[in-house]
Amino acid sequence: MSTSERENLLHIFNEQLRHFSTDTILFHQAVAERLGLNSTDHKCLDIILRNQPITAGMLSDLTGLTTGTVTGVIDRLEKAGYVFREKDPEDRRKVIIRVYTKKAEDEIMSHLESFGQSMKAMLDQYDNEQIRFLFNFFERSRGIIQTETLKLKK
Amino acid sequence: MSTSERENLLHIFNEQLRHFSTDTILFHQAVAERLGLNSTDHKCLDIILRNQPITAGMLSDLTGLTTGTVTGVIDRLEKAGYVFREKDPEDRRKVIIRVYTKKAEDEIMSHLESFGQSMKAMLDQYDNEQIRFLFNFFERSRGIIQTETLKLKK
């Protein structure tokens, strides 16, 4: 294969990744709309669920979002009835965020059920070695994405 | 490999995909913040760039977002100086959206340059057959994501 053929292949693959990220964001935006949130709020809710109890500062560190953005996210999540703020019993000066876990998980999962089934049917066509190859690709990609997100924050 | 080993593998792979989508959304949110937008606005700008001139109704169809959300997106993009509305010269009752293309492309690309270089370095370690395999996986996944986004809209 010539250099230009390789270049073409990488070009169409990069375009595919760009479209995939657009589709991913629009899907999560559609789920979020059903929950009365935007896609960033929705993903922050997921992160709070996995790390609660959490402070606004920790959420900012975990997400790479500015503290101003994080405050807006928590306000919207609180207004929509997914999370609540409370004083940290171990340090009354700190405010921690907790999730109404069952409500959040039930409502998120109800919108992801059909997606999960379709993905499962597709993945059934891949053998274990292929799944491990894909896992590795996503792991490496996540490393890059996380590093680049931190760079943007500086 | 037993059924439960296969189940475990699929479970950790699904968790990986879930984290990947979170990382993707947070990365685009970080880029969007640099541009004074949110991640949905940012991706809509990308879609308008590729399809302009476009109406709000067409943007709603392409993205799966409600017309109410689309109106807010266009308002913010207009306020940030990326797009403008004008009357369609062929049908004065229609409003079309155009992008200040150079400003949008220059500003988006300046924040994606480092990410592009890191991805390129990683992809250089994959041969053509592997890239084609990944391309196929992303293509099939996009089909599912698009179908599920439309289902959520109903």
Features:
mainly alpha; homodimer; globular; 154 residues; 6 helices; 3-stranded antiparallel β-sheet
Supply the CATH architecture of chain A: Orthogonal Bundle
Summed over residues and divided by their number, the pLDDT of chain A gives a mean of: 89
* Structural class category of chain A: mainly alpha
Task: Specify the biggest β-sheet of chain A.
Answer: 3 strands, antiparallel
Number of strands of chain A: 3
Runs of chain A in which pLDDT lies below 50 for 5 or more consecutive residues are none
Q: For the largest interface in this structure, which chains are involved and how many residues does each contribute?
A: A-B, 67 and 67 residues
Strand order, sheet with most strands of chain A = 1-3-2
- Assign a percent range to the helix content of chain A: over 70%
Shape of chain A: globular
Account of the protein in words:
Chains A, B: Keywords: DNA-binding, Transcription, Transcription regulation. Chains A, B: Pfam families: MarR. Chains A, B: This is Transcriptional regulator. Chains A, B: GO terms for molecular function: DNA binding; DNA-binding transcription factor activity. The structure is a homodimer. By secondary structure, chain A is mainly alpha-helical. Chain A has a single domain (about 5-125), classed as Winged helix-like DNA-binding domain superfamily/Winged helix DNA-binding domain (Arc Repressor Mutant, subunit A). Chain A contains six helices and three strands, in the order ααβααββαα. Chain A has a three-stranded antiparallel β-sheet with strand order 1-3-2. In chain A, helix 1 crosses helix 2 and helix 2 (about 40-50) crosses helix 4 (about 65-80). Chain A starts with a helix and ends with a helix. The mean pLDDT of chain A is about 90. The interface between A and B is large, with 67 and 67 residues.
